Amino acid sequence: MDIALILSAVIAVIIILVGLGIYNDIIARHNGVQRAWSDVLVYERQKTKVLDQLQKVLADFMVFESSLLEKITGLRSAINALPAGANGNALTNVETASREVMGGLRIAFEAYPDLKASEAANNMMREIAEQQENVGAAITIYNRNVELFNNAIEMFPGSVVNGLFNKKIRVTPFSDTEASQGFSYTPNA
């Protein structure tokens, strides 16, 4: 009988330790998602700083391209309106506005190549493109962290531990519907 009691105690300790490990893993993955989202916000806000400088340079262009200023202002507002909490859906408007601004800038520079500000503006466009690449990389990392977190809270035994203790909810990854419309392939569900 002493062996059965000792064996039961060892099994109970193992179950508790495994449960604590799963609980801590869920918390760590949730924190990873929040950190990755913060990185996306940092890159978007860095892009805002470059846009502020670009806005000054584009004052020379405003005679030719008044709508571009509105698009840049709208993009800055969209970036500043991103929530502090992880939300892949909120990033859709910002990425669409970024594409519109970049397209408008390319058209403006091609139409008016002799403007004195064009070289500075071209340098800033390269900086914005680099910032946009950073945002893309941060989104990739964010979506990977979201996948790992969602798997941790939805798959057994993490779903049991999460249901009993953490009560964390599924996080929405970022998806670009505009980009996905260009593909005819869809994975089998």
Automatic annotation (TrEMBL):
Q: Where in the cell is it found?
A: Membrane
Please list every transmembrane segment annotated in the UniProt record, as residue ranges. Answer: 6-26
**Major subcellular site:** membrane
User: Gene3D superfamilies recorded for this chain?
Assistant: LemA-like domain
**Which keywords are on file for this protein?**
Membrane, Transmembrane, Transmembrane helix
Protein family membership? Belongs to the LemA family.
Would you tell me the protein name for this molecule?
LemA family protein
Q: From which organism does this entry originate?
A: Pseudomonas koreensis
